[in-house]
Amino acid sequence: MFFLVSEQDWILESHSQRKLVDIEPYLMHVGKPWRKNKELVESDEDQKKPHKEHQKQVDRSHIKTSPSAGIEAKHSDVTSKQFSPTKIKQWAKNDLAQTISWLESQEEKPEPNELKAIAAEGVITCLQDAIESLKQGNDVKGVAEQWSFVPHVINELAELDGRRKEGSLSKEQLSQLAIKCKKIYQAEFAHMHDNDKKHQSKPRSDDAQYDSDDTIEMTEEEIDLACRQLPGVCGRQ
């Protein structure tokens, strides 16, 4: 079923072209938009589409991570792996052992029972110097140059600090990383110290407790007296 939308428009158009023009554009199908206005409607919708597409692109641009943010995230992930708690704990053990060895190699060295404590204090002090330097906006390399023996963790921080690529950590982020390392080092040193104390206080075996200097010398009379008091042990009456 068709309806003529505008008979006058169709007649005028036919007259202007001096022929009968197609009447289809001037008809309306039941339940559908006016065919003549369809082109206008589509044109209007076409004009809206670019705007909608542009809006979608703008929205997506907000969702997408900027290149610098992406690089920073990747760099942070690499740093997390490089400075994992497991690695830092191992560095702490190695740094303490190597610092002790270095102290022992010096002409003037601490007493043996003080070596471990002094070595641990030196490593922690070096880390604190690095933290203070970073907080002031200075390089870790300058700290390393002031120490005769540099712990491995300081070299790692200095290497990271020396990278000038886009997305590298800021001084503030590096200082936070150094603080993290210091806390793990302190905890690991405390754990090692507790283990040493437990080992020292652990009861020794009977053989280890035996000392020939503690042997009691007894006369024959004293032996006979003791055996008479403990006849079941000595087998004497």
From TrEMBL:
Q: Which domain of life is it from?
A: Eukaryota
Region annotated Disordered sits at 40-84, 193-213
Domain BRCT, first and last residues per copy = 1-28
Q: Which residues form a coiled coil?
A: none
Compositional bias annotation for Basic and acidic residues? 193-207
Name of the protein: BRCT domain-containing protein
Organism, as annotated: Oryza sativa subsp. japonica (Rice)
